[in-house]
Amino acid sequence: MPNSQFIGFYNTPPLWVHEQFGMAQFQFPKIDFEGLETQPISTKMRLGHQMESVFLQLINYSKILKVRLHNLPVLREKRTIGEIDFILEDLQNSRLLHVELTYKFYVIDPSISEPIHQLMGPNRRDMFFTKMEKIKNQQFQLLHEPEGITVLKNNGIVSDGLVHQCCFKAQLFVPYWNPKVHIRPLNKSCIAGFWIPFDEFNTTEFNEHQYYIPYKSQWVIEPHKNVDWLTHYECLLEINIRLLKENSPMLWMKKENGTFTKMFVVWW
Taking Cα atoms as reference points, which of 70, 68, 62 lies closest to residue 92? Predict the structure, then answer.
């Protein structure tokens, strides 16, 4: 049986459905997890690379898709100018898919008017709009540059017949004080929890709950009870260390009734 990271990745909704922003969303094949045997993934890798390994293993297990190549660098005068995430063969429709994979955690800032500009990383250094523009204008176009055409040809692939798609999965976190934000045309099913500034978390309202600070490799999965839970006071001490480094930690919060909530405590 696969570990919870595979299931968490698979169950994370796409940030949009069908086509938005001039980019088609990849339709993930149905996976029968009962028969899936997975290879271990090192937690020392960056989370993005862990997600690439999860994606690769799930696609390799699929009966309707075949991986033709992945993580292929494109060079210009011996300098890497980009990388092709995945070329997949769609066995049902006899076509080749160029899939750029992204898995993100974004907090929503409703003080910004346009939803596509509201999404940013919990440390405010990673913007959805910037990533979207890079995929569309750089990563997709890379395959039609002379260097991209050549490297594909060397691997037996003609760039003209490729269908560009994104596998863009995301977990979104709404402000604690304003959970009913409107994010159309984005997928509201991506909302996974809330975010809150430290000063508001450091109040009596949160005293009675228990907390766990997951490792980054655990950010993808659903909270569960089988971890070492901290009191609010113990959690504050751990959070302070991270906030001093301008690092906004994710928390799992467990209420007395046994319900779980994901949240980010932000440093800004």
Answer: 62
State pLDDT tens for residues 80-122: 999 999 999 999 999 999 999 999 999 999 999 888 999 999 9
Please give the angle made by the CA atoms of 258, 249 and 199, to the nearest 5 degrees: 85
**Gap between the Cα atoms of 248 and 266, Å rounded:** 5
Tokens 């919060």 locate to: 253
pLDDT tens for each residue of 101-111: 999 999 999 99
Q: Does the N-terminal peptide bond of residue 115 adopt cis geometry, omega within 30 degrees of 0?
A: no
Give me the DSSP letters along 211-232: EE---GGGTTSPP-S-S--B-H
Rounded to whole angstroms, how far apart are CA atoms 153 and 208?
A: 61
Determine if the pTM surpasses 0.90: yes
pLDDT 10s digits, 195-226 = 999 999 999 999 999 999 999 999 999 999 99
| CB atoms closer than 10 angstroms to residue 247 | 13
Q: Are 108 and 173 in contact (CB under 8 A)?
A: yes
